[in-house]
């Protein structure tokens, strides 16, 4: 039990200690695209692509799983 608690405390310490560096990167990106409207639009589009693609993959995977399970039920194998 002590090892598990130690791992949790160590993990949380590392997460919080590196948080300031990740926030600093946000400021750098903002200042880099602040004056260029086209770059800002491209940056926002890139964020949307990175956000949407995992959901599309998940939806496709779930679709094929559900389709496969319905076919197996229809054949009476489940």
Describe this entry's structure for a reader.
- It is a single chain.
- By secondary structure, the chain is an all-alpha fold.
- It is built from two helices and no strands.
- It folds into two domains: 1-34; 37-78.
- The protein is flat and about 60 Å long.
- Helices cover 91% and strands 0% of the residues.
- The protein has helices at 2-33, 37-75.
- The longest helix is centred in the C-terminal third of the chain and has 39 residues, at 37-75.
- The model has no long low-confidence stretch (mean pLDDT 83).
Comma- or semicolon-separated keywords:
2 domains; single chain; flat; 78 residues; mainly alpha
* Count of beta strands: 0
What percent of residues adopt helix (DSSP H or I)?
Answer: over 70%
Shape annotation:
flat
Structural class of the secondary structure composition? mainly alpha
Instruction: Give the terminus-to-terminus CA distance.
Output: 41 Å
* Percent of sequence in beta strands: under 5%
Total number of distinct structural domains: 2
Unreliable stretches covering 5 or more consecutive residues: none
Q: Give the biggest sheet.
A: none
Provide a count of the helices.
Answer: 2
User: What is the string of SSEs from the N terminus onward?
Assistant: HH
Provide the gyration radius in Å.
Answer: 22 Å
The whole-number mean of residue pLDDT values reads 83
